[in-house]
Design goal:
With about 350 residues, the protein is mainly α. The chain is built from 17 helices and two strands. It has a two-stranded antiparallel ribbon.
Length: about 350
């Protein structure tokens, strides 16, 4: 279809549509004869989505990520909500400061007099103090991140009840053990979170379809991945920096909340049972004489930054899939900067 029809159906101006093409949000085909764009129904659908999200003031980079992976939409909506509310609080304080200054303002005849009056006034506050974390939104963000692979089916009344229970439980932890995880997710570049989320989803799907005959082969893959992790100095440092403030509390929380998810979605039950079985097989191997080499290798790699029992050995799966996870997105120095930003830098030291 021609661009005139697209303008009519979407209400978006022609020059704006061309801008979205330049930004590769849509990629209509071109007519080989005249060079005009030929728009499809999918292009129309994307443009309508873009228009709605732009109305909510989402930046182009976030919209691009949403179009590439709609499962991450909740993350970007959460990010935008916090951004807009922080801006609103900053604007409100700026208005209050300006109002107070204007009420006490004396007529100035010279620039020196004006400068003197302005010198003791700050109109725009430091937005950093408004970078607060809105608990209910943080709970949604964490729940979406942890269980996004299992919330794609229609909600029955019972599933809605379970989800509310899960959200309430998550909410109770957002200002304690999950606080740093929430801050970490919001600190990361959105495009990288998007990629890590896809990796997590694809790995979950592979684990869900494992059969009993597949378990030994998967355990061998776990061993290989763990050896690679143990030989990678950067990954080991990333793990140690993030373990106490982020990895351990998030892992323990997910494990403690699993009883709701086991009822919530049959695929999660398959995932949980399969990964638990494989981790237990790996545990048994590491406890044997044959597994002594791997056990000692991992003991040296983790250097005490591990608590396998509390997570039913789920930390082994996290380490095995570490390379493609959110925990590996920042370089060690960037992680240190994040920990300083949150005031938790000292937590990583023994």
């Amino acid at each position: 279809m021609k661009i005139q029809e697209v303008v009519k159906r979407t209400g978006i101006q022609k020059r704006t549509i061309y801008y979205y093409i330049d930004e590769k949000l849509i990629e209509p085909t071109s007519n080989q004869t005249n060079g005009y764009h030929d728009f499809s129904e999918e292009d129309i659908q994307k443009l309508l989505i873009i228009r709605k999200l732009r109305d909510a003031q989402l930046p182009i980079c976030d919209i691009r990520a949403i179009l590439q992976n709609p499962r991450t939409t909740a993350f970007y909506l959460h990010k935008q909500l916090n951004h807009l509310q922080t801006d609103l609080l900053v604007l409100q304080e700026t208005l209050n400061n300006l109002d107070q200054f204007a009420a006490q303002f004396n007529v100035c005849k010279t620039l020196e007099q004006l400068s003197a009056q302005l010198s003791g006034t700050t109109f725009k506050p430091d937005s950093q103090k408004y970078s607060v974390h809105y608990e209910s939104r943080d709970a949604r963000l964490i729940a979406q991140y942890l269980w996004q692979a299992y919330i794609d089916e229609p909600m029955t009344e019972y599933r809605q009840f379970l989800w509310q229970k899960l959200m309430q439980y998550t909410l109770e932890h957002t200002q304690s053990d999950l606080k740093i995880m929430s801050q970490y997710l919001q600190y990361l570049p959105p495009e990288q979170v998007d990629a890590a989320s896809v990796n997590q989803y694809l790995r979950s799907q592979k684990i869900i379809v494992l059969t009993e005959e597949d378990f030994p082969c998967f355990v061998e893959k776990l061993k290989t991945s763990l050896r690679l992790f143990a030989s990678d100095a950067v990954q080991k440092e990333q793990w140690r920096l993030l373990y106490h403030p982020v990895i351990r509390p998030t892992t323990i929380f997910a494990f403690s909340a699993s009883h709701w998810m086991l009822e919530f979605h049959p695929d999660y039950r398959k995932y949980y049972e399969n990964i638990h079985t494989c981790c237990m097989m790996l545990k048994d191997y590491m406890s044997s004489d044959d597994g002594q080499e791997l056990r000692l290798l991992l003991q040296d790699a983790f250097d005490g930054y591990c608590d396998f029992e509390s997570s039913s050995y789920g930390e082994l799966e996290i380490a095995a899939s570490f390379q493609g996870s959110v925990y590996a997105l920042l370089q060690p120095e960037e992680i240190r900067q994040f920990l300083c930003y949150t005031g938790t830098g000292s937590v990583t030291h023994k």
